Protein 1
Amino acid sequence: MPGLRFAAAAALIVAGMFPCVPARPQAPAATSRAPAAKLVEDLVYANHILYDQGVVDGFGHVSARSDKDPSRFLLSRSMAPALVTSADILEFDLNGEPVDAHGRAVFLERYIHAAIYRARPDVKAVVHSHSPAVIPFGITGTTLRPVYHVSSFLGAGAPIFEIREAGGTTDMLIRDNKLADALAITLGDHSVVLMRGHGFVAAGDSVPQAVFRAIYTEVNARIQAEASRLGPVNFLTPEEAAKAAATLETQMPRAWELWKAHAGKIE
Amino acid sequence: MPGLRFAAAAALIVAGMFPCVPARPQAPAATSRAPAAKLVEDLVYANHILYDQGVVDGFGHVSARSDKDPSRFLLSRSMAPALVTSADILEFDLNGEPVDAHGRAVFLERYIHAAIYRARPDVKAVVHSHSPAVIPFGITGTTLRPVYHVSSFLGAGAPIFEIREAGGTTDMLIRDNKLADALAITLGDHSVVLMRGHGFVAAGDSVPQAVFRAIYTEVNARIQAEASRLGPVNFLTPEEAAKAAATLETQMPRAWELWKAHAGKIE
Amino acid sequence: MPGLRFAAAAALIVAGMFPCVPARPQAPAATSRAPAAKLVEDLVYANHILYDQGVVDGFGHVSARSDKDPSRFLLSRSMAPALVTSADILEFDLNGEPVDAHGRAVFLERYIHAAIYRARPDVKAVVHSHSPAVIPFGITGTTLRPVYHVSSFLGAGAPIFEIREAGGTTDMLIRDNKLADALAITLGDHSVVLMRGHGFVAAGDSVPQAVFRAIYTEVNARIQAEASRLGPVNFLTPEEAAKAAATLETQMPRAWELWKAHAGKIE
Amino acid sequence: MPGLRFAAAAALIVAGMFPCVPARPQAPAATSRAPAAKLVEDLVYANHILYDQGVVDGFGHVSARSDKDPSRFLLSRSMAPALVTSADILEFDLNGEPVDAHGRAVFLERYIHAAIYRARPDVKAVVHSHSPAVIPFGITGTTLRPVYHVSSFLGAGAPIFEIREAGGTTDMLIRDNKLADALAITLGDHSVVLMRGHGFVAAGDSVPQAVFRAIYTEVNARIQAEASRLGPVNFLTPEEAAKAAATLETQMPRAWELWKAHAGKIE
């Protein structure tokens, strides 16, 4: 399995690259408030799956709200998602600051995750991606809408966040809580928000659901772009989307098991 | 061979994921009415091939009419096609109900298969897919027509099924026999029917033929979309398509053997 | 190397599939007029490379004029190119008939090769492909012209063959010498001819050159289609193309060695 | 890891292909002016990464200015980048002539590198590619501009070099210092210059930076082409691009480590 061997070799290379990092830095301590091992495992799989499915490259990140403490969330240290192991997962508070970074670098854009967990108690996982298929929608102001039942979580369409309105001339990054709050307001109660000249964010009530939404946001973008060149598109109505989304909930494990198998065994 | 190792690893992972499922659930009993082992093998290969060739992802399914009892058909339990083994194949009656599900979950859309087997005695295998390349045609009302001899089975063009006409506002799924009958009527005596906002169905007189049609429906969609941007398309005439389809019948094993080799050894 | 393991596994599967075929059918006898082993090896590599580079799928074929007898050419029996071994190579005369088929099925369209070898003494190798990227040009009457120096062999543009003019309503196949002669006339002294609703043929003065032309015909098609959507295209002039083609001749081994390495060891 | 095994097998094949080449030709001698082993290693990785990421095929090349002598640069002998080992790296002077070619063939277009190192003391590495995604921009006169922060190094847009203005009717190659100087003038102080009917050149202040720019030039081209079909594009302003580029500098190692891991261990 390519994914498996890739991950193994990658681990060797990373080990060699950062000699100053302990071979097995400690995962969050196993106290009563430490997240369950299953949640950490899901989060590591999510990192590998998002790379394997083409939704992230060297950049992008995925987080999960702690199942033991809703005021904390888990996110890897600053690194390529495909190379993440459980030892790279750190805990953050809802201001986006690491509880204990163990001296490791953290993502500049961790505030994206923090702001969404603050604003949306229902959200348990967040994906941030620069997927090439999605960028064209944000930079042309084209609304991404569901072309089929599998992307019905797009509902009546994904809103687009314009960082110029919130921050003027920036380096395009969500590098503080003020910008992140503005992004969370644009997200509102949607599942997905596009970011002009940057990428998108998908939120879900579990790690598999957020990953599912990120993957099919990218697929929907490719289909919608192609369809728009053939003629006017007959999208799912908001009512069809709502009904389809409810059914789809029950079918997600089917995709998650496939993606895990394809990405290969972790660690 | 990536496919081979992927399947092997996937089997391990699935085994670990469903501890409540017996390691080797029983295949349909070897009575005089049980389908031939060769048919089950072809159906398992079909599942893997359709994933390997990009026609299905975590969703989609393929069935075969029993070679021992035309009032029965074979279809896997509800799972990703790439992970199917012979132990996952169940037998269904022509109402779409499992003869004995052995307690396992079945596809919501098994009625698609049942209705087509009821309406079309000549059909021995059915593929249902959400292929991204095909969706744009259904949602823009663009007729898919044969661009070359290899997709000549498209004849004068594939009809498009609009579920709103048959069921009003739905969750887009063919989840009962009433919707499935409407779909079968739109299919008529064609090889392929597109489903607006959902995907398509390909039917054939054997598992390899249905798989062949599903794969080249997807290829034709990509070619036709690309060609339509260069100028008006000179399609095969219905007469050319009919002649080409007759010749093509004799050449299908060449592709089937390749796809089997590429997908990798099963089980 | 995926290609290597794929070929090995494929050989096993094919061996199991055709029990009536001797495990190692005889290659053309090693008489003074038998082609050199190096030519046969190049031809087997060409089969694997064309599949590995996406120019052929289960269909398509490549031939080489015998280096010992210019009135003979070499072509595999009727099978998927990716699975060809030296034992599958047969010798044909310039009427397109096998010298001795050893009871094996031959391609319906072997006449394509025969007619071009008859009409073009300079041609030593011929590729026939249904590449999806190229079909849109033939079916919209769009001339394929060189977008960069690497495809400069397209010169002032590739002619398009319309089988209706030569054969009326057909099954689209070049299944006799009459149709093949008409195709060869349209090819004229070009390197490549497109076939409406079918595919294309590339000819060269060696196996590597014909393969190179087939691969970059496909790449040129993708680039030209994409460019034509951005605005009017500034193609290489015929003079630039002629100069670039002369230089390119000396650089082809670089690509051939790469493609061999990527396709993997044969047999 | 596919990349790893591919490289290993490729090395075997190449070894067998050039029996006249010593099995381990000497790398530049380890004198005080010889480049550091780390620079040679980075350059070999760059060759493999650019192939693995789809930016070069059998053609294209990447060089690095010597870290011991700014009047020298390192470039492989004339061969496909994917097959390069440290033994294939040669040293050149700023006129583009090899210091000692050890009898091996050198690239016709080595002058591209020489001219840019002459004109731009800040440049430490140069990539030349024929990426299919980028060609459409040069041949339609469409300016490539940054669609997102990751390609912010494109600034206000990449200039396009028209070889007809500098050399009249040519074979499209930069085969002498006169043409190369004209190219360097068009590049000016940009990071990237497109070459009409040929490809592009990316320059950077390190091997990882030049590789990063080459890879994301290709990604930007795909995104921009797609976006331009959806509507008018809202590019990064030059000010946003400048700010984003400054931030991005600090994030590049993340991508470089991933690409190395994916390309596989060299030698």
Note: Chain C touches chain B at residues 2, 5-6, 8-10, 13-14, 17, 57-59, 78-80, 82-83, 108, 130, 132-133, 135-137, 139-142, 169-173, 196-199, 225, 228-229 (CB under 8 Å).
Protein 2
Amino acid sequence: MTPQALLAILSEVEQGRIAPADAAEKLAKLPFEDLGHTRVDHHRSLRTGLPEVIYAAGKTPGQTVAIFDSLRRDGVDTLATRVSAETASALLEAHPDAVYNAIARTVFCRKAPAETDRGHIAVVCAGTSDLPVAEEAAVTAETFGARVTRLYDVGVAGLHRILAVRETLAEADAVIVCAGMEGALPSVVGGLVGVPVIAVPTSVGYGASFGGASALLGMLNSCSPNVVVVNIDNGFGAAYTAVLIARKTSSR
Amino acid sequence: MTPQALLAILSEVEQGRIAPADAAEKLAKLPFEDLGHTRVDHHRSLRTGLPEVIYAAGKTPGQTVAIFDSLRRDGVDTLATRVSAETASALLEAHPDAVYNAIARTVFCRKAPAETDRGHIAVVCAGTSDLPVAEEAAVTAETFGARVTRLYDVGVAGLHRILAVRETLAEADAVIVCAGMEGALPSVVGGLVGVPVIAVPTSVGYGASFGGASALLGMLNSCSPNVVVVNIDNGFGAAYTAVLIARKTSSR
Amino acid sequence: MTPQALLAILSEVEQGRIAPADAAEKLAKLPFEDLGHTRVDHHRSLRTGLPEVIYAAGKTPGQTVAIFDSLRRDGVDTLATRVSAETASALLEAHPDAVYNAIARTVFCRKAPAETDRGHIAVVCAGTSDLPVAEEAAVTAETFGARVTRLYDVGVAGLHRILAVRETLAEADAVIVCAGMEGALPSVVGGLVGVPVIAVPTSVGYGASFGGASALLGMLNSCSPNVVVVNIDNGFGAAYTAVLIARKTSSR
Amino acid sequence: MTPQALLAILSEVEQGRIAPADAAEKLAKLPFEDLGHTRVDHHRSLRTGLPEVIYAAGKTPGQTVAIFDSLRRDGVDTLATRVSAETASALLEAHPDAVYNAIARTVFCRKAPAETDRGHIAVVCAGTSDLPVAEEAAVTAETFGARVTRLYDVGVAGLHRILAVRETLAEADAVIVCAGMEGALPSVVGGLVGVPVIAVPTSVGYGASFGGASALLGMLNSCSPNVVVVNIDNGFGAAYTAVLIARKTSSR
Amino acid sequence: MTPQALLAILSEVEQGRIAPADAAEKLAKLPFEDLGHTRVDHHRSLRTGLPEVIYAAGKTPGQTVAIFDSLRRDGVDTLATRVSAETASALLEAHPDAVYNAIARTVFCRKAPAETDRGHIAVVCAGTSDLPVAEEAAVTAETFGARVTRLYDVGVAGLHRILAVRETLAEADAVIVCAGMEGALPSVVGGLVGVPVIAVPTSVGYGASFGGASALLGMLNSCSPNVVVVNIDNGFGAAYTAVLIARKTSSR
Amino acid sequence: MTPQALLAILSEVEQGRIAPADAAEKLAKLPFEDLGHTRVDHHRSLRTGLPEVIYAAGKTPGQTVAIFDSLRRDGVDTLATRVSAETASALLEAHPDAVYNAIARTVFCRKAPAETDRGHIAVVCAGTSDLPVAEEAAVTAETFGARVTRLYDVGVAGLHRILAVRETLAEADAVIVCAGMEGALPSVVGGLVGVPVIAVPTSVGYGASFGGASALLGMLNSCSPNVVVVNIDNGFGAAYTAVLIARKTSSR
Amino acid sequence: MTPQALLAILSEVEQGRIAPADAAEKLAKLPFEDLGHTRVDHHRSLRTGLPEVIYAAGKTPGQTVAIFDSLRRDGVDTLATRVSAETASALLEAHPDAVYNAIARTVFCRKAPAETDRGHIAVVCAGTSDLPVAEEAAVTAETFGARVTRLYDVGVAGLHRILAVRETLAEADAVIVCAGMEGALPSVVGGLVGVPVIAVPTSVGYGASFGGASALLGMLNSCSPNVVVVNIDNGFGAAYTAVLIARKTSSR
Amino acid sequence: MTPQALLAILSEVEQGRIAPADAAEKLAKLPFEDLGHTRVDHHRSLRTGLPEVIYAAGKTPGQTVAIFDSLRRDGVDTLATRVSAETASALLEAHPDAVYNAIARTVFCRKAPAETDRGHIAVVCAGTSDLPVAEEAAVTAETFGARVTRLYDVGVAGLHRILAVRETLAEADAVIVCAGMEGALPSVVGGLVGVPVIAVPTSVGYGASFGGASALLGMLNSCSPNVVVVNIDNGFGAAYTAVLIARKTSSR
């Protein structure tokens, strides 16, 4: 029900065309959130101002293209994540102006000119194997209008590499740290900066890394109190929250 | 907001004392579920017709008595579960007509005459150590108006015991099976009856029983398709659902 | 041994053709359940009145077709679940009147006219990735004679979607809720309805979803007392129990 | 080494009192971070402007009082968390102006007038058992200068309670959600607001809650992309990060 | 129902006092196993010839004494395991001829003269901390009539100790090996003997021993094919099975 | 060193050709077990009288054939387990008299006439999916000279099937029970017989079966004290131990 | 058997008093390691030259004192670890010259003058809660004759603290790093030094630290290749190995 | 920045060409470790004197060749581990003088003549399936200049095999033990030698081996105090640390 429809009912009550008791029964059952929008994604987009995102894993190329088409018709910026090579080809054929990032596994299509800078996010990763997750975060954040600084291959076994980028880290509004294996990097970065650090455990490693669970546990037990954690390999979620943090900062 | 309050607003619109636009703004923000009741337990009680239940674990005797008092003032049957001996004493002092079941760890107080039979529930358990959980289930079900048949100490290592109660099982509207250790009893019972079996893993056992986790896993993997599972030691939840099943059956 | 055979033995005793001691020895060893049926599946079918079901996972197409043939010869409705595309082809070739549901991975063949309505079951799922499990549940329930309402894509991150279907949920005799990831949907649905909710964790997710274990744990810890749980991806078991609940309700 | 000391060395080089080679050896070994502060906590306090915090768990009352004394002598606001009743008595005896919060298990002592508002944080919890964690978060955030709105006892089994506080949630700069059992509340809250949600799993529950692990896993798998997670019962860390988010927002 | 009772019914049929149809109905419902004994423990005792055993953990002293009394009245040897000091006192007061083993936590009472040798069982353990489990096994086996050789403190870090008892091991009919920590001893013993080795993981250890789970896993992965495993700390079960093996051997 | 070599040294001492002190030094370092045989498998074969067994998993066809050749040259019965189809072809080509069992994944070659009966082993399994493990056990036991009775498809959800084979079970010297899913069958069988029951959890199942871990845990927690357990899918180990039990019994 | 006894046998052979064949039989069965010492600890002490150590956890004060007495009578340095306050009192009463370290939970008694320096070991820990484990390591290493440098409270959240001790670390022959929570410190230290780093996870932490398991997993997944790991809280084992490393280095 | 560059700056200060304040600002920000080398691997190589190593898993053949080329240009010995057959071909084509070890999955290229002996390392493994891990360790150690003795196929189920190599073990400076399944071998070896034992759990096994986790847990709980552990299958890390131990020993 749109606000217009609500107003219409109330006008009818005012004009005596609907009895108050009948209107009461009708209104009492109204879904709270269902005023003028029917799909959650559109609703979220309206509320946050962030583009629509399609999680392509587990969807066929055809399904992904169909959803992509529908969103573009709505005239919004559109991002697809976890895109396979096959799905990427299908999307690029249908949308030649879309941009495919093979490492990040993303396809993005911008409709309107990019917003001006919406904050500064640093994306840090420990090793080259963490790149797909780090790039998913970086591309997502850029798509959402943030300025992104990539600081890759700065593992804790060589502290000078982290120290060398310390000033850059300190300038960011939020820092995303992707790391597999022991997941120690977020604690070290958290000790160097005074902003929120979003830790992304990656499934990089073997043996007792247990598919990223060891890195996840390490990050949850971080001794730096400004470290928060998302799911294993969830670069998208880290970027989403980082943008919410950074944008607020820069928009005031 | 009560239905009365809603009606009042709409009457004011009808009488022109509130403009439709103002009323629309007011009503659009109304919490959907908040018409005439403010606490979820009351709401649930109204919807299901089952008595109020206080989960006493983690509450002080004083807190438990206070909530118990409040509910009795509302004139509803009242049940407290996971009651410690100390809390039980406090409740009995305040409510001399309440009934304490030390094994089930429950205190119950009935206000109105008990409903007539609301279905038949069999509560089965494998060993004497499972009794507290089985009794929590049995007392809860009785409190909610069901007729309960207790079939205790019928473990799978002595099949003749289960077979001896087979006819009784078959007559129930729902069967609750409490078992620790390997948790095999629900599968065996499930194969004997044609009604839903609600399996309750108990924390009985040692070593690789891992606090009931082994029994839980066994029940989730049951080869009998009419077995559903609740949390470890959750006799209350099993009874709650069993009553919903049995009552419908018998009330039509 | 059939009841007829038992009667025959006793008649021979009456007529003095078998000595009591010999009959005693014979009868003492009789398998308790083996009176008149020799295979458990037939027995279950007789007891519950539900069709035969073949779990096709881990069986070759040839094996599945052979069992399917055998059951159809017995003149009963026949359902195969977890059917691969290859097995589905083989079944359809042998039974052109069978119906294949590619999403639910089921093949069904009805012999007699469908029973009249045996209760109403709502099948709810959180996302499109949960569809195979939800459809397995829905098709199974329909096969067993229930009326099924499908309420798909109503995840907890957009409450208005759940609230929009609240009335439909409240009309069901039992609700099946399939959800992966955090498995929060059954708790929310359980709070909205006064009937049993059967929660089915799905293996949807990645990273710390651990193949559905996180959703399973969430559901077992539900704060709604009318939620019971089955194994990960076990849409069939959920439907089987839901039909037992719904049928009783509607048949009286 | 302070910046002054560094300047002194370089001046001595300029004046020819130290040979460049000797200075080079001296400077090459300088600890990078050790310019003007020797203890990490002081350093963190200087960098973030947040008060000193003592984690009192595992420290004797005497040790805690000694550290508390030392920090107060530095003239900074001082907060102790996870304070036992015994330690609280010792602290209050030594610092009669300190404030003890028995539920939050905190002792706080403010030296200078509280800062003006540094952002708005909503602290939400699902049940009364989650109060100690929620209060630890709330008191920490207030100590750090944030305005805190407490929204307690709004579990997912009664959606109307969450919906009733929806507007308040939407006004916060960051939301902290504490929940045990299935840990579903952060996803629901995350779907209602457009700001970062920091989820704190609590060790509330029994059986398959596994000391909070189930709630933790549920939160990590949240379908709301604006949900980030901290360790079980870590109300302090959640508040620390929330203040970093909220303060930036409001200070610009 | 006893065999006598069954014979009585059939005689009545023969004499025409009961109609075959009535007898058929009566017999068809007879529990298969319930001919002549009504409690599983008695049944098991009759079948195996082993004494009755009371698992005292989780039972009050009063309950344990009551069951002990009842069994002794039946004139059978009686063993109680997992006996607390308090329960032991109560048992010894009631049964002054009973024998209490404080390390094994057992109380035993023999009625008839002990059977002659029923096989030879070696009980091996790795360290002094494993003694309670090893003694539970040894006392149980002796109670059941086996000759027991104790070989204690022969951990794998000092192979000469194991090699020194090699001949004794080789003479046993079955070997029980109790070990905590890494649980390596059963594999080593299994390689030295040609008889079944029953491995009992103990909860001895700390840290990553996880309450005996590590020892359990080690034993399940044994490279010696004659190693079988029981639950953590289950000395009783190991002895029970060892006696079944050893007795057969020696009784023929 | 062979016994001959030892004798030679001692003779040299007797004859004064080696000084006692020199001989002492030489003998003190002798590997204890290395008197006349150099490979463990030969040693085990000599000690137990059981044929050689090759575990083919993880070996190439060529490697497996080479070891098979070597063992046959020694003139002993030879069994290969976990044989792939490709390896089986290679073995059959090289040893046309060998027998391949595709379900059990074994290849066996007998050199001498089979031994006379070495005891009676019952192999029980719960479902058709457990067949490969059950057959590995059955074929191994037959290879080792035991008489095997196969009792398949007797799951606990249909007790009449187990009860129907009760007498056969009771006649065995040892019972092997293979079961996946909830792993309840060994407890039920253990309650029916008075001989050792060797439980083999199988990796059959899905979701919360966790690759057989749930069945394993169920079996370790069995309430039947005559149940011992081996590794998941370890039909070979179960048969190996069962033969050691059964052979002793029947050979005396 | 002592070397003397062996020599005696051989002399008898030389003198013709024992036939070579009889001696051969006798010697072939000699336990390999059992020449002149009967307890493993003595053997280990002889082989490594390190003092005897008593692991006092799980032993009564009386037992511990008895073993301590026995070892001192042998005239060796004696160390007891995991000593409770009660046991410490008993030891000090019996051995007034012993030294009790309450934090390390050790009691030590030196017989001969301490050896000269046997290498240099650095013991590093992350926080004050790790002190008991770090001190157990430090005291053990000192007892064994090593020079120990303690570098405490150098967690990764404040890198300047680690960098400040970098030169000291680089001078050690081996480094022991004790850390709980995320266990990141060994990786950082491993990157700074060119010697072996022995990582000791501690059980410090709460919630998802799971009693030290998270720290353990982090250390096993270290990206520094010179990091090896011991059991949770195993300061003793870390020191034992570190001394073996350091002593070799310095003794040449 | 090289030491030369640092000296240049200081000389400019001495000569008055840079003001002390400007130099102070410049030097204060210098990354501590970044004096004269910019990549961590080079730094580590310089510090330890060990060759560069490329971990090829997760890198394409092209990427691996490119890094290999770059390192060789630097004139250092170069080792690649976890090399697939495809990558090995590419490396050998580009570097015909490189040596490929298919079992160890390594490619090595020596530039300068091999160093003289840098210590003696024994590599022990339990079964033939552990060979790839053992060979990775052996080849790595040889590459780093150590003398390696391979002692393969000496599992604990046949102790004579271990005892036969006892003297060889005792001569090593460090021992690496690779074992899967129950992981018992390191404890046994640790009891035989007086040097550090580095245990490498392998992922060999099935069922309850859980990909090497059981072996890992066994090794962490070793009763031999000279056993330290690395990650599952981490033959490289074990060799790296073993060389650090052995080299120090032999170089003095």
Note: The interface with chain C takes residues 128-129, 155, 157-161, 163-164, 166-167, 204, 206-209 of chain F (CB under 8 Å).
